[in-house]
Amino acid sequence: MTTLPETPAGRLRWAVADSRTLTVRALAHWARSPGDVVVGLLFPVMVVLMMGYLFGGQMDVPGGGRYREFIVPGMFAMTMVFGVETTFAAVAGDAAKGVTDRFRSMPTAPSAVIAGRGAADMLHSAAALAVMAVCGLLIGWRAHEGPAKALAGLGLLLLLRFALVWVGVYLGLVAKGPESVVTVQILVWPIGFLSSALVAPGTMPGWLGAIAEWNPMSATVTACRGLFGDPAATGGSWAAQHGVLMAVAWPLLITAVFFPLAARRYRTMGR
User: Fold this and answer.
1) What percent helix, strand, coil does the chain show, rounded to 5?
2) What's the pTM value of the predicted model, to 2 decimals?
3) I want to staple 225 with a disulfide (CB 3.0 to 4.6 A). Which of 132, 230, 249, 252 is the partner?
4) Domain count of the fold of the chain
């Protein structure tokens, strides 16, 4: 019979070790299905190429600037947001197959299952961001404000993804199965497109532009464009003028709401 640690330090080491094991498990699954990983990484690249080359010549950025440099930070953020589907499918699949219940019956740290999933998805998102950055450089995008601000922008993108991991985990735990991903897409895609990622909110009807400017994804996009020195085309709203602040505040708020919900749902499953 396994003896569980009694001290706080022992419980922390236990949780870290179990989280590392479950992170490696998720990475091993991806290694056995490289095709799915490659498709997931290439999809946003195809969107960038399509928007940049097929439609970019007809798109004007309010305030001036090249549309390709305008769109790349937006696609960075969209990649982070659409990652919710990856998290959801993995968590819902494990729950539907009974894997999550088996973990709960084992002497596994309660936080390790969702922490391991989150760590694996953050590694996947960092890889996706690297691929997108290379693609952006190849089509002419540049970070004009130096490496420090560029890294700060990339950090804000990963902060957004970190917050959305817990949204995906929670939705995956409450879903009936991975086939419910369509429901998640109905939630995620409007958030992605009703934003400043592809077009300036000022070109939208007034009420729609206001919604787009207060979109959490728009906050990250606006902040990254400023940090990268790319065309911004920001509006006059408070949210648009304080992009960096909002790019930090929104992910912290999302994490504060959905991390406890995900942890509680995991603890109460089957009751």
Assistant:
1) 80, 0, 20
2) 0.88
3) 230
4) 1
